[in-house]
Amino acid sequence: MSDYGPANSGEAIADIYPSVDERTVPMLAGLARGGRVLEIGIGTGRVALPLLEAVVWIEGLDTSVAMVERLLAKPGGDRIPVTIGAAIEMPVEGQYTLVTALFNTFFMLGGQPEQVCCFGAVALHL
After folding, report:
1. What's the alpha-carbon Rg for the chain, to the nearest Å?
2. Where are the domains of the chain?
């Protein structure tokens, strides 16, 4: 069994995420145009927290409770609503201006059928 399945992938790689490129947050904030943003695979908040500081309304979706606990323990982390669930099911409410899946999130969905399902679910929320 792989350590990188949907349920435990976060715990296996939480400490090895690359740093956020300085261009990422301004680019995403610009794409958000002041609207709601959903980060699929929000994890420890390495992108979400800087977006929050850029006055972007950010929400998260993640399968890893351990990763989200790390986010919530950080300053400001408790200001970001997070739903625990799978991206292929998109158990979130409402519409978003921008939905992101950064780093390797999209490739951890399992395979092409799950990725296509995720795209369809995301489209319903954009």
Report:
1. 14
2. 20-123
Backbone region of residue 36 per phi and psi (left: phi > 0; alpha: psi in -120 to 50; beta: other values): beta
Is pLDDT of 15 > 70? no
- In the CATH hierarchy, which fold is given to the domain comprising 20-123? Rossmann fold (3.40.50)
Name which of 80, 83, 90, 91 is nearest 123 in CA terms: 90
**What is the pTM for the complete model shown?**
0.83
Please give, one letter per residue, the 3-state secondary structure of 31-96: HHCCCEEEEECCCCCCCHHHHHHCCCEEEEEECCHHHHHHHHHCCCHHHCCEEECCCCCCCCCCCC
Tokens 């301004």 -> residue? 26
Helix, coil or strand: residue 122: helix
Taking alpha carbons only, the member of 89, 81, 102, 124 closest to residue 31 is 102
Whether residue 34 is predicted with pLDDT greater than 70 in this model: the reply is yes
